[in-house]
């Protein structure tokens, strides 16, 4: 019975709980939630394209399955632990909304413009995207079931507290005055630092297998980036929680930041390779969108241009950090998301403006950053950044290590499995059918300056001796695979 009675005592079978909410605002946030959900397959395609083809399908699987885990976790207790309006400790919620109990037509704890039922659904998509970003840390060497166990526990012990700090009515960061519009702390720092911690516990990929490594499918990377860009307009625009001017400004700022970051990244790559990289454009676009996440509803458009350039530079050079600290963050989640989120949060202190925040018609007369002479905002933002980074990395690493020590839940696949690829080892399915048919998919032929003459025979040269030896061993010692035709057909018996 409690599920059909809202907290103010109204019964959904007798009272119209829709009264008090603007239908246009409600429709806009429902559509924004669907747009954010599209980011999950966008991440899957992006990660798949960035990896090698022998693990391309596995990355799609872990991203999509992580979303399945998150839908259950958020319904079960995630929403209550993150954003229960009755929680008072400032660090994590309570179980008052366990199983969405009583989550109906009350005003949401995030905004009076939308219902709590809609708010909880919209916020679930944020966690889904964050978990999808984190799980890219398993790339090319991680087992998938332990990764799903990690996802559930991580969402409970890392994301829910971060969301409570930032957006909870009594969250310590919210009451402290932190400006984080759409998730620079919970989403961007949360994903970047968690992926770095998981990669650290998981260990580096086998170095001899990384010869001539490049993203295997740039078309997939571009498709994933475009889906992310589309979804991010719902991510940042919808965080105004209404079809209002602040939502429109957030979309404008997101586009400006993304495109100036893309231009910057391409120029930085060109100075080294003297080529115009599409992967560089995609990377720059994502770094700009990341930086816009905490800032797009807070700073001015001209500041968004500066933010795009700054984020492009910071994230581009940030990709070198993993080599310095010797952590194999295979998909650069830390460089793109943690660093981009930090830059965006700092820009809120420098360029946050009350006349941008007030465009939603709700947060009026709120002092923002240095534009409003609110000088203390900088150390508030820095304190929040330090807290998010430290808590996320330490707790994520502890969760990953604890799971890794449980028998049967070791995070990492064997060296043989890594050599064959996660698609073969973990799934028995392949993104490309010729990977299964043609087992020497690591064969490669060095490029030459002059084109081959007509009729010239090209002999593939294997760059990885271990793989070639494995092939020979397989041919000599492995029985005929199940389902394949035997060498000599058996005689027909009656």
UniProtKB/TrEMBL annotation:
Gene3D superfamilies in the record: Ammonium transporter AmtB like domains
GO cellular component: plasma membrane
Keyword Glycoprotein on entry: no
Sequence ranges of Polar residues compositional bias: 471-485
Subcellular location: Cell membrane; Membrane
Region (Disordered): 470-494
Family, as annotated: Belongs to the ammonia transporter channel (TC 1.A.11.2) family.
Identification of the protein by name: Ammonium transporter
